């Protein structure tokens, strides 16, 4: 059993130590170490090149270092290779913090106060109770559900939208394309936590965002490819939308001359909503390799034909 690890060296050092202490039967290599490519059965990577994939004739599983797998070039991956995304508590904890920060900032008018401060303007805005601010999450997976659970105690009316039906206590759940417009009509704050697939690329566009109530705000922590940038700019400029928190853009990094940087109603963060935590992720990976070796289902295995 041999794993090749090709992501950042700092995490690699932590992983190597955990593998040595807790799973010494699994060989742990990085590309700088001499190794026979034919012995590699598992690859842990963020965006492996087609050349690297082609050089591993006995690859069985590609493990993503992160929650997303849209960065993989699936056309370079032989059909029998299984793909597993990362589900570990550090990613969910980071996302919960980021989305809570963004929802509370929007709910408490932080964008307006940031603007007022620039002009030394003392301009209080009447408080709106949380019970009157409807929050909706696109994507009811691992992260969407963690975020909804964290938002519940504030008292926001909560809703969610996913591909297949879900039943989550305290959340009005909608499913499928035909339910999208009804869902959007109930979101004063819309949070995107979808994976990027052929079906979801460009989903945050004028056609869909126009169904949000007037004055609604957007939080995109999914992928930059979900958003049609020009549509967001024109909906903000028309005052149909009141603000946006964007953690993800396309491309990344966002070019220095991009209009998002200077827009007074947009808050940009550089894809930092959450980060894979090295220690917990190493243990999740070891557990998944053990499950696979035992013929059991792996946590986070992706349906390759579905794209997530
Ligand atoms: P999951 O796979 O657990 O959940 C995905 C959810 O999206 C599911 O509820 C799924 O529906 C829903 N979905 C997928 N396709 C559609 C569709 N066509 N229409 C409606 N709903 C759809 O993913 P995670 O929660 O773990 O992660 C979500 C995404 O968050 C990642 O793919 C990544 O892009 C992003 N991310 C961003 C980070 C950041 O730092 N900004 C960090 C980590 C992740 P169903 O339940 O019916 O299958
Ligand atoms: C991830 C990410 O997918 O950091 O984990 O975006």
Number of separate helices: 10
| Bound ligand species | NADPH dihydro-nicotinamide-adenine-dinucleotide phosphate, oxalic acid
Instruction: Estimate percent helicity.
Output: 25-40%
Give me the strand/helix succession: EHEEHEEHHEHEEHEHEHEHEH
Task: Kindly name the structural category.
Answer: alpha/beta
Separation of the first and last Cα atoms: 26 Å
- CATH topology grouping of the largest domain: Rossmann fold
The CATH top-level class label of the largest domain: Alpha Beta
Percent strand: 15-25%
CATH H-level superfamily title of the largest domain: NAD(P)-binding Rossmann-like Domain
Strand order of the largest sheet: 8-7-6-9-10-11-12
Number of strands: 12
CATH architecture identity of the largest domain = 3-Layer(aba) Sandwich
Q: What general outline do the C-alpha atoms trace?
A: elongated
Give the biggest beta sheet.
Answer: 7 strands, parallel
Description of the structure:
- This protein is an alpha/beta fold and 308 residues long.
- The protein has two domains: 2-88 and 276-293, NAD(P)-binding Rossmann-like Domain (Rossmann fold); 89-268, Rossmann fold, CATH 3.40.50.
- Helices cover 31% and strands 16% of the residues.
- The chain is built from ten helices and twelve strands.
- It has helices at 9-22, 50-54, 89-107, 110-118, 142-151, 180-184, 206-209, 229-237, 259-262, 278-293; strands at residues 2-5, 27-29, 42-45, 61-64, 82-84, 135-138, 158-162, 171-175, 189-192, 216-220, 241-246, 266-268.
- The strands form two sheets. The chain has a seven-stranded parallel beta sheet. Strands 2-1-3-4-5 form a five-stranded parallel beta sheet, covered by helices on one side.
- Strand 3 (42-45), helix 2 (50-54) and strand 4 form a beta-alpha-beta unit.
- Helix 1 crosses helix 10.
- The radius of gyration is 21 Å and the shape is elongated.
- The structure holds NADPH dihydro-nicotinamide-adenine-dinucleotide phosphate and oxalic acid.
- NADPH dihydro-nicotinamide-adenine-dinucleotide phosphate (NDP) binds next to helix 3 and helix 5.
């Amino acid at each position: 059993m041999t794993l090749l690890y090709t992501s950042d060296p700092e995490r690699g050092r932590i992983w190597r130590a955990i593998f040595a202490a807790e799973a010494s039967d699994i060989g742990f290599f990085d590309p700088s170490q001499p190794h026979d490519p034919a012995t590699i059965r598992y690859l842990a990577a963020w965006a492996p090149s087609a050349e690297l994939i082609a050089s591993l004739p006995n690859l069985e599983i590609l493990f993503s270092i992160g929650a997303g797998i849209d960065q993989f070039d699936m056309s370079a991956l032989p059909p029998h290779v299984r793909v597993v995304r990362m589900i570990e508590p550090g990613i969910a904890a980071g996302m919960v913090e980021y989305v809570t920060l963004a929802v509370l900032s929007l709910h408490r008018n932080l964008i307006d106060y940031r603007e007022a401060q620039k002009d030394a303007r003392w301009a209080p805005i009447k408080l709106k109770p949380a019970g009157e601010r409807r929050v909706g999450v696109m994507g009811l997976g691992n992260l969407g559900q963690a975020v909804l659970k964290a938002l519940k105690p504030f008292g926001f009316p909560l809703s969610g939208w996913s591909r297949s039906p879900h039943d989550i206590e305290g959340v009005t759940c909608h499913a499928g394309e035909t339910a999208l417009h009804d869902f959007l009509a109930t979101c004063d704050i819309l949070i995107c936590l979808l994976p990027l697939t052929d079906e979801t690329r460009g989903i945050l566009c004028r056609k869909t965002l126009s169904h949000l109530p007037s004055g609604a705000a957007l939080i995109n922590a999914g992928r930059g490819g979900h958003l049609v940038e020009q549509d967001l700019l024109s909906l903000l400029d028309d005052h149909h939308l009141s603000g946006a928190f964007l953690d993800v853009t396309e491309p990344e990094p966002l070019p220095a001359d991009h209009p998002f940087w200077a827009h007074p109603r947009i808050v940009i963060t550089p894809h930092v909503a959450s980060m894979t935590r090295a220690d917990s992720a190493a243990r999740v990976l070891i557990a998944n390799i053990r499950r696979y070796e035992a013929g059991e289902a792996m946590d986070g295995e992706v349906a390759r034909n579905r794209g997530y």
